[in-house]
Amino acid sequence: MKNIKFNKKVLHLNNQYWILLLMSSFAFLLIFFRLFFLQVINSQIFKKMSDQNRIRLIATEPIRGRILDKNGEVLARSKLNYSLIIKPQFINETLWQRYKYSIANLLNLQTDKLDLKYKNGVKNEQYSINLVNNLSVDQIIRFKENEDKFLGIEILRKVKRDYPHKTLAAHALGYTSAITNSEFKILSKKGYRINDLIGRTGVEAVYENYLRGDWGGEMIEVNANNVVQKSLGIKPSKKGKDITLTIDLSLQKIAEEVLKDKKGGAVIVMDPRDGAIRAIASKPTFDLNFFTKDFKPEKEYNNLFFSDSKPLFNRALNAYDPGSVWKIVTALAGMESGKFPLDTQLQTAPCIVYGSQCFREHNDEGFGSIGYEDALRVSSNTFFYQIGYGVGVDEINRISKILGFTNLSGIEINFQEDRGLIASSEWAKNGRGWGKPGQTPWIPEDIASMSIGQFVVQTTPIQIARAYAVIANGGYLVTPHLSKVDKENLSYKDSIKVDIDSKHLDVIRNGLSKVVQSGTGVSINYGSYNLPPISGKTGTAEDALGGPDHAWFVCYAPSKDSEILIVAFAENTPGGGAVHALPMAKKILEEWHKKN
361-391 burial string, b = 16+ CB within 10 Å, else e? Predict the structure, then answer.
């Protein structure tokens, strides 16, 4: 019996041993696998987390590239703002008490304000505390002369965008503003920092990657108590690239000036040979420097964003009734269709009835029997009513598309660009954009309006510039552009040879020459005897929205081998294109001729 009890006791002890061994082994394996997971599999992750706790970055903002006109004149630049900063990790409280009095005396500052900024910065554990903003040149010089006396205190350069010409080409240049928190989640992967600036509109936005540059900074190592141990190195910030535009500053100034007495409008000056924009202006405009202000007054903000005049709206890219400047499209439709050959003669009249309305001639008399060239010269309405009615809406629509209408122009700043409206029978059949299909059919009254660029035709000044460039350059549809950068950032396309008979283009070219020689645009020659031969077209358009008439004038010079094309548009300025828009173009031509 005693042996049996002893064996049971031994067996029990053996079981405890094996259980303890298994538990110990299991615990050891758990620890082993955990250590393997931490130190081998996820070593890089935890090293990165450790570095993030150990390393701090004092960032240095890059200088944004300049925007220059074609001659190197500065249109936008980065203006440097200097601040006095202190790195509290490099000094102690005793040293600061001595520094604050010395700095206050040296730079003519108040000691208590310096002390307050320093203490707030230390309380918030800042590694770089801003003591003074907007240092004057005198203050910068004084500090630099005594810089070696102040350990841990230095001048910080801050970059601020500056537009020396304020409102000049505002819609084309565009502006920058700080990125938002929601944008930062995406842009941080591209090297942006919180509150970093980014181009919002215009050239600033289009060439953001070209202009912005790269951040730099100093890396410092801290211990568990956030006390700086040492500097790990400095990486200089990288300046953004400068970009040269096709804009000519002198022509841009005149383009802005001729709009000053207008309620609203736009001016485009373009080289018809390749589409290079020499000037592009829109009225009302705005001061680009508003967006660089640290504090934006509420009144200024409301006038910019909530004004009925919409100063941020680019009129050069917005669609309006083109009026008589559209008549070259109807003329080409007549000839290209074959229904009204280039030698066609039509009898004009005081008015012609379409549907239930008599559409009048603008002189209420008519001009007798005339052909295309004279119809353009005197801007006859009844001549083009007959052409338009004869070829039909869809032929006019077809020719308009060849000339670039209903499409975006291709200019880089197309954020607000309108495609416009060129009516077609299909468009009317489908409801005209506001009605139900089948209930808004094409009617005879529509063709009269369309033939002379009214109501069912809406075009932008930039589209008009492209179409007239086809006439001026002998048949090439150019792409307007503001910049010619390197091949990696090509900003324009090759010109397209249009599918229009060159003889028909010659007829239009002759007619536009006669407009200025003895027609509705003859006043451009008054008092300007030294200008080269000019071709052009006046236009007066009723506003489809019910406002006063618009005034248009388009011209190019010289008439042969043209080098400049101008579109002048005065919004809701009744009185006619020859009265209001033509003088605008004339002043620009005079400035261009003086330069050349």
Answer: bbeeebbeebbbbbbbbbbbbbbbbbbbbbb
Mean pLDDT of 549-560: 97
Euclidean distance between CA atoms 43 and 489, whole angstroms: 41
**pLDDT tens, 250-301?**
999 999 999 999 999 999 999 999 999 999 999 999 999 999 887 778 888 8
Task: Give the least confident one: 319-333, 365-379, 493-507.
Answer: 493-507
pLDDT of 269 reads: 98
- Please compute Rg for the chain using Cα positions: 36
Helix (H, G, I), strand (E, B) or coil at 499: coil
Q: Yes or no: say if 500 and 442 are a contact pair by the CB < 8 Å rule.
A: no
The residues, any chain, with a CB within 8 Å of residue 327's CB and separated by 6 or more, are 375, 376, 379, 384, 451, 452, 453, 537
β-strand pairing of 243-244 with 67-68: parallel
Q: What is the sign, positive or negative, of the torsion defined by CA atoms of 423, 428, 430, 431?
A: positive
Token output for 374: 């004279």
Q: Quick check: helix, strand or coil at residue 193?
A: coil
Could you identify the residue written with the tokens 């239930």?
A: 356
Averaged pLDDT, 139-147: 89
Strands 476-477 and 369-370 come out as unpaired
pLDDT at 2 over 90: no
- DSSP structural state of residue 41: I
What confidence score (pLDDT) does residue 299 get? 87
User: pTM (2 decimals)?
Assistant: 0.82
What local confidence, expressed as pLDDT, does residue 52 receive? 46
Cα 288 to Cα 286: distance, rounded to the nearest angstrom: 6
Strand-pairing partners, residue 190, are none
**Both structure tokens of 95:** 């040293």
Question: At 330, phi and psi to the nearest 5?
Answer: -65, -40
In Å, how far are 55, 245, 509, 559, 587 from 592, measured between CA atoms? 59, 17, 22, 15, 9
Whole-number Å distance between alpha carbons of 543 and 332:
25
Write down the pLDDT at residue 490: 40
- Could you give all domains of the chain from N- to C-terminal order, each with its CATH number? 57-244 (3.90.1310.10), 249-595 (3.40.710.10)
Q: 24-38, 366-380, 575-589 — which is least confidently predicted? A: 24-38
Amino acid at 486: D
Read off the pLDDT band of 126 (50, 70, 90): confident
- Rounded to whole angstroms, the Cα distance separating 426 from 401 reads 15
CA–CA dist 341, 154 (Å, integer): 79
| pLDDT at residue 236, rounded to an integer | 72
| DSSP-derived 3-state class of residue 324 | helix
Buried b (16+ CB within 10 A) or exposed e, 514-538: bbbeebbbbebeeeeeebbebbbbb
3-state secondary structure 336-351: HHCCCCCCCCEECCCE
Q: Name the maximum alpha-carbon separation found in the chain.
A: 146
The answer to whether 283 touches 264, Cβ cutoff 8 Å, is: yes
Q: Which residues contact 70 (CB under 8 A, 6 or more apart)?
A: 244, 245, 246, 247, 248, 278
Question: 500 in helix, strand or coil?
Answer: coil
Q: What's the pLDDT at 68?
A: 97
Q: Read off the pLDDT band of 152 (50, 70, 90).
A: confident
